[in-house]
Write a structure and sequence with these properties.
Two copies of one chain form a homodimer. The first copy, chain A, has 14 helices and 16 strands. Chain A has two domains: 238 residues, 3-Layer(aba) Sandwich (Aldehyde Dehydrogenase, Chain A, domain 1); 149 residues, Aldehyde Dehydrogenase, Chain A, domain 2 (3-Layer(aba) Sandwich), CATH 3.40.309. At the A-B interface, helix 1, helix 10, helix 14, strand 13 and strand 16 of A face helix 1, helix 10, helix 14, strand 13 and strand 16 of B.
Chain lengths: 415, 415
């Protein structure tokens, strides 16, 4: 057995205990983790300081360094998030369907944990804790695999969480970290289907694509977001301008930010009259088709073909005209990433056509795409936003970290 | 673009039309398919006769030849199955969750089709039709990839189904067959995530494992079944014998048949007193641990380690003793395939421990594992039995061929 196989087998064993643990025990474990994070924060902060110095010496850029850095306030925020997870309802054990058959067998479909969840993530050290506690709350064990930049922080978080689990009588192996941060270990993890039930990559598009391509363990694809707002000929234009401005500039680095505005040609000029003053506030660069370049002159750059398929994550907005709602729908289905797509219109029929025809996890009518988020949807938690159609779609809360089993009771029935 | 990419793009376009098709149109399409199968049966039968002759000349064995063969009766059975699918309730469009947020946005989670479903299957020509019509009923397009043995039959079924789709105004491309039956085409299909939303392999364990290993398209693992019956010290032994006999011999070639009986040592001898007369009827071979070999003498062979991990699909039964229910649970979790697992006991507490602790799609108390089946569960259809925990677990009906989207309506809300 390799090191990782041993870790997988231990996690699988721990998952059996977690599946049987009651809500109270799981909540006690989460509160013990929150307390331990505060009590042992000096350890975590000093491990993180070492990571930080090493990354800085290695030439990491300022924004990445900021993501890597833990502070007393950030630790308190993480601990508070753990307490909130403890307060959420337990999804496990719920009977989701009941079937009584003519032959007398009684069938219940019951919610059960997924088992062992593998989380692959990049630099932020808080993800190790945020992700692990949601897995635990839903009765799972998890194997964490962070980047080498945060290995010291993550090893410390691992020790804190394992200690807290043991303190309430749960197996420490319900949480473990892959200590080997080489590419080989990541690759091995992606093929550990004997022990891992699902792999969830969290991070940039490159990471997610490579995991989805490589893994034989079932994977949930999260995150990539080329989102559009279509402004219809019958839109309320001040509303449209406000929605585009918000979806583009409120937090451009996230996946539910808008990357491209699609405009009915009849309102393109009027739309920009409303929107430009707002977009100017943040100096949003506009990359547009010829028609819009004609309207905007030097305020816009001409878009290349590549622009229609780019997630900028920046103060850049692509802009394109269409001659009908159907053309907008076809364009979005061809260039979107099935994340979040919006129509602004006062015409309910056009809205219905758009909402039914656009293939995305979340489709919006007259609201900002920025609402695609577990907390904004009221799930009370979020492990990521799924852009695939199997198992989970859109914001993933605790329910998406569960599966089900059929429990069949009889009195000796045979076929 | 390759041939397969063109086929994928056409299927994706057709999927958009299928997603918008109403229940009535979809049902008309299914009834048109059923009628056309009957009206054009001579074509289908003669294409099948060619397949049959070629396979026979190529040395295919008798049981495989029987699977390949279509008859007038079999065609009528397939057409009848299509009519039954038309009569099932349409899963699409149902609102499965409603969320109203304090900011006034209204969120509905609505059931939508998966999109494009790829089906990879082996020799039986009826699968092409059975699988396609369930995909269509759930609003999907599908790409079928059968074995080379049934290529003529499948091409004919493809032509019949495409003609019927067009006759009701739906796109023919909602059903298409991969005509190239080489390994390369199968491999390309497994990486066509740009156009295919999910891949469902149906066939032997070898096929399913190779697809799950290779595919970057999300896959649903079906079929492999090493199922156990645990007979507890407090079992009703005549009931236990009847269940084991039924689960082993009623149809040994299927995945929900039992492969191994696990016996509490205190009742091992008494169990066989009840069970042997039944098992003898079919000359069931017994491969057992030393304790059982001691009891049964020459009636049993000594099991090798491999026996505990073998799906016989034959009149062979592995048999093993344990000293406690927990040992049975651990053995089953180590050697099962998470398909169907049964305990026979009169003790409700022991039953609950087993049902909660055994990790399988279906867990049984005092009933035969043979009930794990879409029709036996009352789903009215079955596309396969999933042994994974993501998206689908256990018998898959129409609902498992769907996903959902969030539809968010606002009045200009922003964050």
């Amino acid at each position: 057995m390799t090191v990782l196989e041993m870790q997988g087998a231990a996690a699988k064993k721990a998952a059996q205990a977690m599946a049987l643990a009651g809500t109270e025990t799981k909540n006690k474990a989460l509160l013990a983790i929150a307390d331990a994070l505060i009590a042992r924060q000096d350890e975590w902060l000093s491990a993180n300081a070492e990571d930080y110095e090493a990354a800085k010496a290695g030439g990491m850029n300022a924004s990445m360094l900021d993501r890597l850095k833990l502070t007393k306030e950030r630790v308190e925020g993480v601990a508070e998030g753990v307490r909130q997870a403890a307060a959420l309802p337990d999804p496990i054990g719920k009977v989701t369907k009941t079937i009584d058959r003519p032959n007398g067998i009684h069938i219940e479909q019951r919610r059960v944990p997924l088992g062992v969840i593998g989380m692959i993530f990049e630099a932020r050290p808080n993800v190790a804790v945020d992700a692990a506690v949601l897995c635990l709350k839903a009765g799972n064990a998890c194997i964490l695999r962070g980047g080498k930049e945060s290995i010291r922080s993550n090893m410390c978080a691992e020790a804190i969480m394992r200690g807290a689990l043991e303190s309430v009588g749960l197996p420490a192996d319900a949480v473990s970290l892959v200590h080997d941060t080489s590419r080989e270990s990541a690759k091995e993890l992606m093929h550990l289907e004997k022990y891992i039930d699902v792999l969830i990559p969290r991070g940039g598009a490159g990471l997610i694509r490579s995991v989805t391509k490589e893994a034989s363990v079932p994977t949930i694809r999260t995150g990539e977001g080329i989102c559009h707002v279509y402004v219809d000929s019958e839109a309320d234009l001040p509303m449209a301008a406000k929605i585009v401005w918000n979806a583009k500039t409120q937090r451009p680095s996230v996946c539910n930010a808008v990357e491209c505005v699609v405009l009915h040609k009849s309102i393109a000029e009027a739309f920009f009259n409303e929107a430009l003053p707002l977009l100017d506030e943040k100096n949003v660069e506009i990359r547009a088709d010829a028609k819009i370049c004609n309207i905007l002159g030097t305020r816009a750059k001409e878009a290349s073909d590549e622009d229609w398929d780019t997630e900028y994550n920046d103060y850049i907005l692509a802009a394109k005209t269409v001659t009908s709602p159907q053309e907008a729908i076809d364009f979005i289905n061809a260039h979107g990433t099935q994340h979040s797509e919006c129509i602004v219109t006062e015409n309910a029929e056009t809205a219905a056509l758009f909402l039914n025809s656009v293939d995305a996890a979340a489709v919006y009518w007259n609201a900002s795409t920025r609402f695609t988020d577990g907390f904004e949807f009221g799930l009370g938690a979020e492990i990521g936003i799924s852009t695939q159609k199997l198992h989970a779609r859109g914001p993933m809360g605790l329910e998406e970290l569960t599966s089900w089993k059929y429990v069949v009771c009889g009195e000796g029935q045979i076929r």
